[in-house]
Specification:
The chain is α/β, with parallel strands linked by helices. It is built from 7 helices and 11 strands. A 7-stranded mixed β-sheet has the order 1-11-10-7-2-3-4. It has a two-stranded antiparallel sheet with strand order 5-6. Helix 1 packs across helix 2. The protein is globular and about 50 Å long. The protein starts with a strand and ends with a strand.
Amino acid sequence: MVLGKGAANGTLTEAEVREVFAAGIEQIGVEGKRILVILPDNTRSGPIPLCFRLLTELMLGRAAQLDMIVALGTHRAMSNAEICRHLGITEQERAEKYGAVGLFNHDWQHNLRLLGTIPAQEIETLSQGYFHDALPVQINARIFDYDHLIILGPVFPHEVVGYSGGSKYFFPGISGEKVMALTHWLSGMLGVLNVIGHQDTPVRRILHRATELIPVPNWCFSMVVRGHHDLAGLYF
């Protein structure tokens, strides 16, 4: 199911954003479940403070556990102060109001688990013949502590994948180095004009194939961002 709202010539109101979040959360069924939300880091634009506030309001007290992890890829870890600014809260609010919400950084070198391996023949087909080796797919081991994974992030034209968002938050967002290395090399070989702004690319196909290996049910709230913070669309 896909649901959501968009404003072609304006921005969504807070009430409209809440409505989409609430409808998606009802589809997931969060009561008594352990939930991990996967967020962009501070190199990405979007109304993260608004989204954080609404998601916590809608799920705290219903979910058995609500945590969030920053999809850093290979970016440096964010400090507690940086995460708080990113979420639009003070460090005091973090401790007193949102203490039940775990906030984590991804580490691409540690605490990984092998999901499986995409066979060499598949990689050759998916990469349009540029690569011929099997691809081990690693992901942050923390995901196995949860019943549902929820991606929250903006969608923009992207020079490596075609468009950011969706499965890119798993790979390379919270993955190990093998998928990162292959997809970035592949994008360079394809050339930026054959990648950026294209919905279907060999890199995106590999990310989708890797995501099929994740055994934990996963969902996505995709944002259409106008400017830096204005939300022109939200889709589940």
